[in-house]
Amino acid sequence: MKARVHVMLKSGVLDPQGEAVRHALGQLGFDGVEGVRQGKVIELDLAETDAEQARATVTEMCEKLLANTVIESYSVEIA
Amino acid sequence: MHAAVIVFPGSNCDRDLAVAFERAGAKVSMVWHKDTALPEGVDIIGVPGGFSFGDYLRCGAIAANSPICRSVVAHAEKGGYVLGICNGFQVLTETGLLPGVLLRNANLKYICKPVDLRVETADSPFTAGYDAGQVITVPIAHHDGNYYADAETLKRLHGDARVAFTYMDNPNGSVDDIAGVLSSNRRVLGMMPHPERMAEPLHGGTQGAPMFDSLVAQLTNA
């Protein structure tokens, strides 16, 4: 079973890297990019076969390690 | 006074920190990250600067979950002293021992230079060797030193005088110019600047030395 975790900075937390990307896009002539937020995608291969159990375990992984919930939010996809 | 300095793969200020403690008169043990227990009778743990585990995932995140960090957290929870400098500060926020988090510098640059810090409180064993309001010059060397905490946390930090140091000329975008914060019991300090790199005349200054002298004096009498 595969899981995919998206980790994003929470809204309200300044994202200097996203700002730099936005600025660079502007320099390349891509006008009208009003905001860029950069995050992470983490893919996991799990031995677990039960989707609900996998979701619960991956959520615990996010809380303990994969995201820092002070500044980041996360979402979990199970496939 | 017995200090333990934790060594992670990628630590690079561990020897500097050990030398600063030794110069002040402490006995120092180096402790490898895979160790699960601290040496007997440790008074203070130093979590050094560097790039533990290559800053993978988030700076400090992997180190904060290493075997020895469970002992560091247990030591702090029993009322023990912990000093985290630079990457060590990042590790301590990741363990939850200190509030907030260190983000990428606002200008996205790695910054390595001496900076002026204002000592915001002398009420801690780390800062008792300074006067509140005193300005000291200490180097910074970091890419992720942009301190962030939510408004409620900041209010608590200011209200309890837990901001230990602020930047006179904010180099990295830190909220409220914060350079270092204390735990609620004032026994855990995290700071981005490097007092251990300004601790003897050959460093070009000794304004970091009072931190180590004060810790050794207070923890030896304790």
From TrEMBL, chain A:
Q: From the Swiss-Prot or TrEMBL record, what is one GO molecular function term?
A: ATP binding
Q: Which superkingdom? A: Bacteria
Main location group: cytoplasm
Q: Please state the pathway this protein functions in, per its UniProt record.
A: Purine metabolism; IMP biosynthesis via de novo pathway; 5-amino-1-(5-phospho-D-ribosyl)imidazole from N(2)-formyl-N(1)-(5-phospho-D-ribosyl)glycinamide: step 1/2
Its Enzyme Commission number(s) read: 6.3.5.3
Query: What UniProt keywords apply to this chain's record, in alphabetical order?
Result: ATP-binding, Cytoplasm, Ligase, Nucleotide-binding, Purine biosynthesis
Report the record's Gene Ontology biological process terms. Answer: 'de novo' IMP biosynthetic process
A single cellular component GO annotation: cytoplasm
SUPFAM superfamilies in the record: PurS-like
Provide the protein's localization. Cytoplasm
Subunit field text: Part of the FGAM synthase complex composed of 1 PurL, 1 PurQ and 2 PurS subunits.
Its biological purpose: Part of the phosphoribosylformylglycinamidine synthase complex involved in the purines biosynthetic pathway. Catalyzes the ATP-dependent conversion of formylglycinamide ribonucleotide (FGAR) and glutamine to yield formylglycinamidine ribonucleotide (FGAM) and glutamate. The FGAM synthase complex is composed of three subunits. PurQ produces an ammonia molecule by converting glutamine to glutamate. PurL transfers the ammonia molecule to FGAR to form FGAM in an ATP-dependent manner.
Family recorded in the similarity comment: Belongs to the PurS family.
Question: What HAMAP family does this protein map onto?
Answer: PurS (MF_01926)
PANTHER family of this UniProt entry?
PHOSPHORIBOSYLFORMYLGLYCINAMIDINE SYNTHASE SUBUNIT PURS
This protein's name: Phosphoribosylformylglycinamidine synthase subunit PurS
> Which organism's genome codes for this protein?
Roseovarius gahaiensis
Which gene name does the record give?
A: purS
TrEMBL record, chain B:
Q: Which reaction does it catalyse?
A: N(2)-formyl-N(1)-(5-phospho-beta-D-ribosyl)glycinamide + L-glutamine + ATP + H2O = 2-formamido-N(1)-(5-O-phospho-beta-D-ribosyl)acetamidine + L-glutamate + ADP + phosphate + H(+); L-glutamine + H2O = L-glutamate + NH4(+)
List the subcellular locations. Answer: Cytoplasm
Annotated catalytic residues: 86 (nucleophile), 194, 196
Cellular-component GO terms for this entry: cytoplasm
Can you tell which superkingdom this protein's organism belongs to? Answer: Bacteria
Fetch the InterPro entries from UniProt: Class_I_gatase-like (IPR029062), PRibForGlyAmidine_synth_PurQ (IPR010075)
Q: Does the keyword Lipid metabolism apply?
A: no
According to its UniProt record, in which pathway does this protein act? Purine metabolism; IMP biosynthesis via de novo pathway; 5-amino-1-(5-phospho-D-ribosyl)imidazole from N(2)-formyl-N(1)-(5-phospho-D-ribosyl)glycinamide: step 1/2
Keywords tagged on the record: ATP-binding, Cytoplasm, Glutamine amidotransferase, Hydrolase, Ligase, Nucleotide-binding, Purine biosynthesis
Which GO BP terms, alphabetically?
'de novo' IMP biosynthetic process
The family database entries (Gene3D superfamilies) matched by this protein are listed as: 3.40.50.880
Q: Give the Enzyme Commission number.
A: 6.3.5.3, 3.5.1.2
GO MF, one example = ATP binding
Which residues constitute the signal peptide according to the record? none
Name the HAMAP family for this protein: PurQ
Summarize subunit and interaction data from the UniProt record for this chain. Answer: Part of the FGAM synthase complex composed of 1 PurL, 1 PurQ and 2 PurS subunits.
The task this protein performs is described as: Part of the phosphoribosylformylglycinamidine synthase complex involved in the purines biosynthetic pathway. Catalyzes the ATP-dependent conversion of formylglycinamide ribonucleotide (FGAR) and glutamine to yield formylglycinamidine ribonucleotide (FGAM) and glutamate. The FGAM synthase complex is composed of three subunits. PurQ produces an ammonia molecule by converting glutamine to glutamate. PurL transfers the ammonia molecule to FGAR to form FGAM in an ATP-dependent manner.
Name of protein: Phosphoribosylformylglycinamidine synthase subunit PurQ
Q: Which gene encodes it?
A: purQ
